[in-house]
Each structure stands twice: as structure tokens, then as C-alpha cells.
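PROTEIN DESIGN WORKSHEET
SECTION A - STRUCTURE
LENGTH: 250
C-ALPHA CELLS:
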């Protein structure tokens, strides 16, 4: 399956990552070959990727805000969960996995992938059904971070049970009854951090696999945060805990 990726940062990340086949690049006629465009031109030459100069209006239907560039590429390369755990082993780090339980908004998925990549998360796990997948819109929303991040698809509850058997602690993010303040939850050590659906939160089976269910402090008048915002905050709280070298989960 072929698809179009548009935008300077997303396209250059696709080309640099070398995880997809790039069939051709389109540049808008009259575009200045400097900065990221010049970098992209050099990468295309190095990888022998065909480059076509086309009228700017030909790019507009291919994606939102193409910024004068588009790439025709193969479909997104999902990985196995073992690829994510192997990456943590190679880095000699405790596993840091982000689990997205039926996130349906492509913008939210893209934002969380970008945050996860920036925070050093080893990989992201999403469901096989009823959730947003890594589409060109998600690539754009992540500014290309999706091309670096390892993303696996699996049955979430089953995968979490298997990870728990291997010593991974599961921390769910939920502001409902029975949750505890996130500052009281151990976020270091090997963890799978679960962010639930935008409207309904985690599904019951997923909720039941959690060793801890954490909530963020809400001091204002609103009752909850956007899933991408809440998830991003929790990711960085976990990063801070991992860097502090405090005692691990027992």
C-alpha cells in the first residue's frame, strides 16, 4: 500500500529513518532549495530517490499544509512488542512503554507519539481495532516522530498480562474513583504507562490489569484534561522519576 506524506519535517523524518520505501519526492515549482528543502534534496540524491518538480496546486490535495513537499511512501512499518523490549535491553534501560487504549483522535495520537519520542519512551502499543492508526495525518501531527518511534499493535489486555509476567509494572492514568495521586505512584523501573480513550478512559479489562491507577492533580474548575495533554504530563513525570534514581517498585 502506498500513501502520501506531506510537510517538510514529516517528509525528512521519513527519508532519514529509512524504515519505509520512498518511491518519489514532489517539490513545488519555485520552492527555494535551502534549509530543510536543501537537506531533503541531498538525502534524495544519496538514496537515489526520484524527485519531481510540480505545480504547487498539485500538492494541496495530498495532505494538509504540504509546505511545498510531498513523498510517496510505503505503508507504516509496525513492529512486534518484542522489538520494543529488545530496544530497552540493548540500551540497558528499564522498559518504558506507552500504551494507548483506544485513542481515536489522530491529533491526540500524533501528539502522544511526539511526546513519547522526545521523552525517550522505547515504544508505543496501540490496539488492533477501534483506534486511530498511524496514518499520514498522524505522521503530520507528530511532526515525523512516528517514523522514529517503534509502534506495535496487539490485544492490549493480553499484552499487558504477558509484560506483567516479565516484571513490568502497569500504571494506568484515570481520574475516576479508586485512583491515587500520581505523585504517590512509583513511575520508575520497568513500566507500561496506559492512557485511555478520550471520552471513556481505559476499558474495564485494561483497567483491571493495572498495578496502579494514577490521577493528575486538578486545582482549577475543569474536571479533566485532554488525553494527549494528560498523557504527555504523565510521560514526563515518569521520565523525571526514572532520572532521579529513587528506589524502584518492589
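SECTION B - SEQUENCE
RESIDUE ASSIGNMENT:
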Amino acid at each position: 500500500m502506498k500513501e502520501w506524506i506531506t510537510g517538510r519535517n514529516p517528509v525528512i523524518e521519513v527519508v532519514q529513518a529509512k524504515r519505509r520505501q520512498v518511491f518519489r519526492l514532489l517539490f513545488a515549482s519555485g520552492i527555494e532549495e535551502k534549509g530543510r528543502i536543501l537537506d531533503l534534496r541531498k538525502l534524495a540524491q544519496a538514496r537515489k530517490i526520484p524527485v519531481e518538480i510540480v505545480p504547487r496546486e498539485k500538492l494541496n490535495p495530498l495532505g494538509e499544509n504540504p509546505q511545498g513537499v510531498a513523498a510517496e511512501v510505503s505503508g507504516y512499518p509496525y513492529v512486534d512488542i518484542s522489538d520494543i523490549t529488545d530496544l530497552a535491553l540493548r540500551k540497558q534501560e528499564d522498559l518504558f512503554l506507552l500504551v494507548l487504549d483506544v485513542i481515536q483522535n489522530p491529533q491526540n495520537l500524533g501528539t502522544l507519539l511526539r511526546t513519547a519520542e522526545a521523552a525517550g519512551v522505547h515504544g508505543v502499543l496501540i490496539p488492533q481495532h477501534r483506534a486511530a492508526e498511524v496514518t499520514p495525518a498522524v505522521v503530520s501531527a507528530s511532526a515525523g516522530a512516528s517514523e522514529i518511534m517503534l509502534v506495535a499493535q496487539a490485544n492490549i489486555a493480553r499484552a499487558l498480562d504477558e509484560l506483567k509476567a516479565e516484571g513490568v509494572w502497569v500504571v494506568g492514568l484515570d481520574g475516576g474513583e479508586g485512583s491515587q495521586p500520581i505523585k504517590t505512584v512509583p513511575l520508575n523501573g520497568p513500566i507500561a504507562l496506559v492512557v485511555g480513550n478520550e471520552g471513556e478512559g481505559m476499558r474495564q479489562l485494561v483497567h483491571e490489569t493495572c498495578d496502579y491507577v494514577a490521577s493528575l492533580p486538578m486545582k482549577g474548575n475543569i474536571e479533566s484534561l485532554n488525553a494527549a495533554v494528560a498523557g504527555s504530563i504523565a510521560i514526563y513525570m515518569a521520565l523525571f522519576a526514572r532520572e532521579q534514581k529513587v528506589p524502584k517498585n518492589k
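SECTION C - NOTES
The domain at 81-243 is CATH 3.40.1280.10 (Alpha/beta knot).
DSSP finds nine helices and eleven strands in the chain.
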